[in-house]
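SUBJECT: A protein chain and its fold
Encoding: whole-number codes for local backbone shapes
RECORD BEGINS BELOW THIS LINE
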Amino acid sequence: MSNIEFIESRSILRIEGDDRHSFLQGIITQDIEQLSPERAITSALLTPQGKILADFFLIESSDAIFLDCHADIVEALSKRLSMYKLRAKVSITPFDQCATLASPHPIDLDGAVAVFQDPRHDDLGWRAIAKPHKESVPEHTYHARRITCGVPEFGYDYSADEKFLTDINADVLNAVNYKKGCFIGQEVTSRMKRKGDIRKRSIIAKFADAVAPTGTAVTAGSSTLGEIMSQSGDQALAFIRLDRWEKAKLDQVPILADGKSLQFRVPNYLEHD
């Protein structure tokens, strides 16, 4: 079990009640009808202006839906969801009996509440809601894997009300369904996708030497392309302006962050978008 990672930065909410599916369907970005005990979904709650307030996994059980989100926002998210429920027959409570686990391989744990494949990217592996395993390893190995895959994550690469779905590639990481019907922020989100001119994306930065610190500006000459986000080893995620990167390549201008040379790589899932 040494390959099971304890994702200490996550918390879980339990959503119960007869109206739990219809309640979530009206506010989140993904189609709740895609959810089943065999299939988890990743989704988000947006501001009316289309920026991400929170993103999360949803996992079904026989009598509840479990919501797995970053621990820093669990309280605020619970309050926001409660504000939206109005007369819906829904209860939202913390679920502290279990934690979030991850692994590059299928997880087999007795007593797990849920085990599911990460719906964002096949190479991210598997996740579980279960009691922490005594032989689990710290979550940095999980973050190394997701950075290699080019997958940004709330709490490490962005915070609430900072980014649009397309900024962190959520539109191609299975976090939104543009045909499901209404959700909060849908008008702005759909318009951005329909225009087809997405200028900002999160991609992978490979450094020749030490990685520049998170928040460091990425430059090409006098032009600022973006900034460094989370990092692992000699790699990091970077939020950049694609048009400025293209110009830097055409002009053959070196790309730097904190004086350190780097090369960009587009995640494979974006190459087919």
